[in-house]
Amino acid sequence: GSIFQVTSFQGVALRSLSTSSPHDHPEHGRLVYKGNLAKTVLGVKFFSYSTSIFNLFMMPYIMLKSGIGVESLLVQAAFYGLIGVFTFVTPVTLHFLTKGYVIRLYYKDEVDTYTAITYNAILAEKVTVFHQKDVKIPDITKMFTTFYAKTKSMLVNPTLFPNPQDYNHLMGYDKSSFLKFEELEEVKEAD
């Protein structure tokens, strides 16, 4: 009986794999990009949050057990200040740095819109829909920003686009080269 169970399980697994991937969202268009650090970002954020929650619950216990006297109030303040920094500042900083990290990017050809999936503060997936013309490239290279979608900073890794043309279109590079080509034609005609 056990051999049969294994093969039937494999069959089910194979069927579910072939029918659809968990990232198929026809309503968003076709998947043009998948960030390879999505799990890492989620893991680090989750670890940071759980540590913070643990610290919050442990603080009263530590205060009770340590019995640091009133005379060393300064030591106490420094100690709790340090714990406070790790409890609140780390998750906030992490969120600030990773909020624009694009997990998946979908593109709808017929309407020229993108759907970017990022993580929000409570580690849920957040959907941002924007048009190609909403894309602004920062003047100076920013560490955690590849482009702005309207006002939101987005971070993608250009090398992870299976089709480089998709990246070029997202950034509007295909338009600028087309203009340059037209300008060249005009120059030739003028000569």
Automatic annotation (TrEMBL):
Keyword Nucleotidyltransferase belongs to the record: no
UniProt keywords, alphabetically: Membrane, Transmembrane, Transmembrane helix
Superkingdom, taxonomy of origin: Eukaryota
GO terms classed as biological process: mitochondrial proton-transporting ATP synthase complex assembly
Transmembrane spans: 46-64, 76-98
InterPro entries hit by this protein: TMEM70 (IPR009724), TMEM70/TMEM186/TMEM223 (IPR045325)
Keyword Transmembrane: yes
Gene Ontology cellular-component terms listed: mitochondrial membrane
PANTHER family: TRANSMEMBRANE PROTEIN 70, MITOCHONDRIAL (PTHR13281:SF0)
Family the UniProt entry places it in: Belongs to the TMEM70 family.
Protein name: TMM70 protein
